[in-house]
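User:
Can I borrow your eye for a moment on a structure tokenisation matter? Would you put together a sequence-and-structure record for a protein of your own picking? Please set it down just below, with no commentary around it:
AI:
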Amino acid sequence: MPAKRPHHRARSREPHFGLRLGVFLAVVVLVVGVAFWLLRPPPSSQSADLTVTMTMAGFQPGRLTIPAGQPIAVRLVNPDSRFHTDGGGVHQFAIPDLGIDVRVQPESAMVVQLPAAQPGTYAFYCDVCCGGKESPTMQGAIVVG
């Protein structure tokens, strides 16, 4: 009869290998995500004559005064988060009488060119969220003079 060999238990990977791998992958994803966030391009580097901030509280300022007969560049800034339940944080800047209707994505900015306009008052609004264009805070006016 052959001699019995001592029973050796096959060594498996370290008992916490899966946990360590999961933590390592989570840290890698976090670092890569932060790097992408830090390296993203600025919202808009184009120069503007005026700036309008669009938030869930409305437009700031809600009234603009511009000269007649001159095109004007307006920077639209939307600091709201995409996690807002009403409209996903998107805001609209619509001036039907001037042919303007743009949507500004959350946490971004864009520059829109207003055409040279005749003297008068032109209404603008956001009809995407926060009560829509019927809400007093989601309306504004451009006075061309």
